[in-house]
Amino acid sequence: MCDVSILFPDSLPSDGRVVDRHNYVIKGYEDVPEILEWMSRQGYTMAVASRTDAEQDMRKALKLLDWDKYFTYKEIYPGSKTRHFARFHEQSGIPYSKMIFFDDEERNIYDLNRIGVLSLQVDRGLTLEVLQNGLEKFARERK
């Protein structure tokens, strides 16, 4: 899911879609719900980092999509991803070398790889294949 800067209603329409106040349907990448559920069942600790000025909208979108429950840590505010990940590290105690990150912005990938987070660019969103390749790369490189 990308950053959002739209207003959301307080509840879902009767058909369960997540829409903004203009009735534009908001949805994540197709594989994301399955990925979140699988990662959760496997016991992964997950975090979400969003560099957005629309903090409340992003938090509301996570709740309406029913994704909020998967994320132990949430850093949703303007600022660099390195700041977001510094907070993840402080809160969790997990070292950067044990973190993997997927993002569609090259600047974020560069910044986080520099501090030791395995960061992988996703051009067309997070898919099951991209996740599998990323986890395999992590296993190979972080033994």
Automatic annotation (TrEMBL):
SUPFAM superfamilies, A to Z: HAD-like
Coiled-coil blocks: none
Alphabetized GO MF terms: acid phosphatase activity
PANTHER family: MAGNESIUM-DEPENDENT PHOSPHATASE 1 (PTHR17901:SF14), MAGNESIUM-DEPENDENT PHOSPHATASE 1 MDP1 (PTHR17901)
Protein name according to UniProt: Hypp4110 protein
UniProt source species: Branchiostoma lanceolatum
